[in-house]
Amino acid sequence: MELTNGAATTYAQAVSDALREEMERDSSVILMGEDVGDRAHSHQAITSGLQARFGAERVIDMPVTQSALVGAAVGAAICGLRPVVDLPDADFLSGAFNPIVQVAAKMHWRTAGKLRVPLVIRCSSGMGAHDGPWHSQNPEGWFAHVPGLKIVAPATPYDAKGLLKAAIRDDNPVLFLEHHYLYRRLREPLPKEEYVIPLGRAEVRRFGEQVTIITYGAMVYHALEAAETLETEGISAEVLDLRTLAPLDHAAIAESLAHTHRALIVHEDTLTAGLGAEIAAQIAEHCFTDLRTPVMRLAAPDVPYPAATELEAAYLPDAARIAEKVRRVLCAG
Amino acid sequence: MELTNGAATTYAQAVSDALREEMERDSSVILMGEDVGDRAHSHQAITSGLQARFGAERVIDMPVTQSALVGAAVGAAICGLRPVVDLPDADFLSGAFNPIVQVAAKMHWRTAGKLRVPLVIRCSSGMGAHDGPWHSQNPEGWFAHVPGLKIVAPATPYDAKGLLKAAIRDDNPVLFLEHHYLYRRLREPLPKEEYVIPLGRAEVRRFGEQVTIITYGAMVYHALEAAETLETEGISAEVLDLRTLAPLDHAAIAESLAHTHRALIVHEDTLTAGLGAEIAAQIAEHCFTDLRTPVMRLAAPDVPYPAATELEAAYLPDAARIAEKVRRVLCAG
Amino acid sequence: MIDLARDDLLGIYYLMGLTRAVEDATREMYHQGQIQGTVYTARGLEATTVGAASALQPGDVLAPQHRDLGALLARGITPREIMAQWLRRVDAPSQGRDGQLHIADMATRWVLPSTGLPGLALPVAAGAALAMKTRGERHVVLAFVGDGGTNTGDFHETMNLAATLDLPLICIIENNGYAARTPTSSQFRIKHLADRAAAYGIPGHVVDGNDALAVYEITQQAAEIARTGRGPSLIEAKTYRMQGHSAADSANYMPPSALDEWRQRDPIELYARRLENLGLLDDALILEYGTRIAQAVQDALAFARNSPAPDPATLTDRLFAPDPVPPTTEDEIITAPRRAVEREGIWN
Amino acid sequence: MIDLARDDLLGIYYLMGLTRAVEDATREMYHQGQIQGTVYTARGLEATTVGAASALQPGDVLAPQHRDLGALLARGITPREIMAQWLRRVDAPSQGRDGQLHIADMATRWVLPSTGLPGLALPVAAGAALAMKTRGERHVVLAFVGDGGTNTGDFHETMNLAATLDLPLICIIENNGYAARTPTSSQFRIKHLADRAAAYGIPGHVVDGNDALAVYEITQQAAEIARTGRGPSLIEAKTYRMQGHSAADSANYMPPSALDEWRQRDPIELYARRLENLGLLDDALILEYGTRIAQAVQDALAFARNSPAPDPATLTDRLFAPDPVPPTTEDEIITAPRRAVEREGIWN
Lengths: 333, 333, 348, 348
Ligand SMILES: Cc1ncc(C[n+]2csc(CCOP(=O)(O)OP(=O)(O)O)c2C)c(N)n1
Ligand SMILES: Cc1ncc(C[n+]2csc(CCOP(=O)(O)OP(=O)(O)O)c2C)c(N)n1
Ligand SMILES: [Mg+2]
Ligand SMILES: [Mg+2]
Description:
The complex is a heterotetramer, with two copies of chain A and two copies of chain C. By secondary structure, chain A is an alpha/beta fold. Chain A has two domains: about 10-190, 3-Layer(aba) Sandwich (Rossmann fold), CATH 3.40.50.970; about 205-330, Rossmann fold (3-Layer(aba) Sandwich). Helices cover about 35% and strands about 20% of the residues of chain A. Chain A is built from eleven helices and 14 strands. In chain A, helix 8 (about 250-260) crosses helix 9. Chain A is globular and about 60 Å long. Chain A starts with 8 loop residues before the first strand and ends with a helix. Chain C is an alpha/beta fold. Chain C has a single domain, classed as Thiamin diphosphate (ThDP)-binding fold, Pyr/PP domains (Rossmann fold). In chain C, about 40% of the residues lie in helices and about 10% in strands. Chain C is built from ten helices and seven strands. Chain C has helices at about 5-30, 45-55, 70-75, 80-85, 120-135, 155-165, 210-225, 255-265, 265-275, 285-305, and strands at about 60-65, 140-145, 170-175, 180, 180-185, 205-210, 235-240. Chains in contact: A-B, A-C, A-D, B-C, B-D, C-D. Chains A and C meet through helix 3, helix 4, helix 6, strand 8 and strand 9 of A and helix 5 and helix 6 of C. Bound molecules: thiamine diphosphate (TPP) (2 copies) and magnesium ion (MG) (2 copies). One thiamine diphosphate sits at the interface of chains C and B.
């Protein structure tokens, strides 16, 4: 397989490329959202040019709504389209909680498999907007508990493209959490050929022996940095990037724990009853005999996302705090 | 302290009594909801008679809304009233996710303490309606992750009354989850004198030595039954009723684990990323050295709430399944 | 008079009678303790539900709400399916997983399933209309909402969206006087809910909801507008819920005088008189239909009672639709070049 | 002419000028990289925001949205507070926790904080109005919403609720031509958003949003209706957002001709001409106000820049309001008689 010659692709461009390629491949793929058309869309310009290319019938500008945008996408999906909904901020998912949780997620099960909802809701989540309590939330804690939803959170341009393609081809509702902070800060050369990354598989980003740092999204890079620091201290940390948050790749977690025997879970989202709790609970039950020290979590504290830079810095996990917590994992037990 | 002479009070009546007493005590307490007035309210007739007593200005019938009922209650709470919102089914909380999560829960923190939201949202949750995917949900998994919310789930008439009074007097937004199944199935004599049960404290319902069953709501009774069965097998199980789900009573959990060394968490709500995950994660991290066997969870499987009785029976934990899982906890590790 | 042949006109009569008979049987079973949960019926609404749904063509989509049995039957859902659904048997459309009239069939009868939350079916219906528009199909979606449901945010967002995008959506407001126990006077300040059409710039009509042909005709007109790309319409059918909110509701808050008045305007009686005046119906035919309807109900009951309960072992099946056939074989899936990601200075 | 004295009329002039100057300074800071996040300003909306908020009395509540600096200043929020809020300093009303114009003060200036989600402030505003009605106070709530915001479910639910309960709520729609980059033509099909009042049975008015006194007057009338228990009003102020959606928005999608046209109708210029015609304003006074405004802005900037950043150690403080004083002492709290609960046969 050949890599593109030279020109590396940003995370934002990778998302854009996936959308364009899937729309070309399958005429049932449509885009819906506020300002998703060619009016110089602010949201990282990801959908720019798609309306000119595919027409206003397939790239549909919608009025401001709270619930009806997603509700309508569910209806379109049931009727054989494959809508990709564009929400600029993951925070706005709260206004669509009803159609996501009560309609989309239950549809296949409750109709005994008669109806499918091949729907993707794309949004940018996480730090990067510096806009306080309503523009940087990580929504996985609201939705990981909901049976019938898939949740994807890519950390690299390569994954963003391959996972978005898989999400669009999936016959179930998928929340696709792009990371705000990574859109323009990452680049990598992508294969010229088409590729699709199956949902539900974690990826080891760094191999290690003594502890597994389980994380996803932008925190992968903090974890890698922490692992580098720890290496200089003689501590060998493995970094596991979950990539898909629901369903979780339990096999990959267990496999890693089987040789490291220790785990730290890191996420940007707040601690209590967050996704890390489920991972910790799974490890505590299923990797009990493997575990040499208690499984620990590092996450944002249980308060809303703060506006001031100084508070934000204290709020989010970073490489130093991850390294420090890994040291505690190693000593504990 | 004297108990009422003879007449035992149902769970539904206990709720009703708490509302009436608090409305008498404090004229800023108001009730809001659909059919909350004296039109023979269907929702267990809990608010019956209150409109006649306190007037239509304090017992306010509202049109059908999704979000505005709770949003308006938040506004009224900020302005010094103490609204108690009546939602017949906890399922309907999904339509009010936005005002609960984005407005009410953040208000005190984000205004640096300037504004308070003394709001109670009462609803009936859990099994008992036999009405399928939208009328028996346990909403704690949607909300336990939200900083700034308190969640209460009483299991007895005594607790329902005392905790509701505390919730009404609390200056924060509180979700008060009454249990549908228990409304008319439980009775106990209540004290004549006023009492208030502080939020945030679990209660040991049965003392035991070898394993702690951590649960709440109607599952308390299944757990007690399981413990009785297990006793006949020589297994001594403690039953801890959480009563308040957020914030959790970590001290009570740790105290119990310190002598039983084993834990099973039971809830009606679905498993993945449910409240049980947080409890298990806490135990796994903080009670690691106490634990002799892995902490386990028993919950509904990850599918919507089913309609057919036969499916419902398979869906919900019961005394037999709890006992069986306790046996597994004891053998594991 | 409208474009209906004799058979169609009699078909509507049959469906209205069938609706009432199925509902009566359902309530009876409920009161005998044979049905779990809540039973919603719609005595008095037969003209609205059957009349409107009769205006649909194959490929048009119905989005009913919890009380719209008449529309389901008009769309071809059978009494057998309905009864099996009430009893939550394995032969029910939702195989016992879901209850009430939450029935889906997008393969041959084009019915979207309602949910337990009023209003929430509307955006889904608009989405179906969007799919039709996107594919250039000349189909329409017929959605029902209650007087209570028009106060929800989803009603507003959906109607505005449908208007702005010219979606082929027809929304019928069943103004039946109540939302649960709340009379319309405690729900809104206006006289005609059809006036809400002005908020969206779409046609709004008030129609006598007890007159099946009037409902049919106005729905037909709205469908024509929708089919020709001119967007949605809002129709308020004025009618009356001649019973309590659910089978468990004593209805003691409903004024007997109003019930009496509306009983004088029973939609099935009104329609029968109309057909008689047209010379299409006589006592013999009424008897014949009565017999056919009774047989259909008996057959449905027998079918449902004989259908087994769902197997608990299937409880967790089909949460997700199966994975699509992988577009590339497993070994073509490459792994990210782990260190190639340029992330230097990422935290600055 | 309306009930405003000379000082009040000049006060409005001052506030409109102050609003623009504070916004200009804010955008400049933003473009110099001194402000993080998104900056919303409202050049062109000064007549609407200041005019409407000037109709409020002490104890009346303001529920602004993200762009309503003029209303905040009219309510007495100071430029110092505004600038400290933009810089997220410890002396800001939200002490750096929240950003933008999300400012709360229910103690002396009666301002509800907006949230980052359009529409969501409306039910909260209605709740404040409900509190006034419940307590029998003769106060009103003034809420702002955008043209985009009127399409949300919360707008609809709130207006219907306020109408049904006769709440003292005045809702001003700032129709400024856009919701982010979406022009009104892609948001709804109607000409006047004020026509949405018909959906609720409340008065609806269209007003020239660039005419401060017209906005003042109509708000005043609506307030009178609200104060006397006759419920809410909806006012559409037609105006124009003379800039991009946020300070980061190049506004390249906005037609220059429209911008030019609206510049001819700059609300501050229009108002100055009006005061001049009334003999209340002359060049000397304009100069004097200009100087006072510039000083106020400089003072605010200096104040904000000198204010320290919030202390990270306080990050997790005050998530919850403190527990109320326990109504009974600890040992009076009894414990449930553990076995007294009758639960026999509970599972049958
Ligand atoms: C959010 C929500 N609120 C309340 C209910 C309970 N409920 C079920 S049907 C219904 C009445 C709705 O009234 P309307 O829309 O007029 O329909 P109708 O029942 O009269 O046909 C209500 C309040 C619910 N299911 N969901
Ligand atoms: C649910 C949601 N959708 C989108 C946004 C992004 N957004 C912020 S302000 C705004 C424009 C709202 O337009 P309008 O109501 O007309 O107010 P204006 O900005 O013009 O004053 C949008 C779309 C958001 N914050 N929340
Ligand atoms: Mg109704
Ligand atoms: Mg606007």
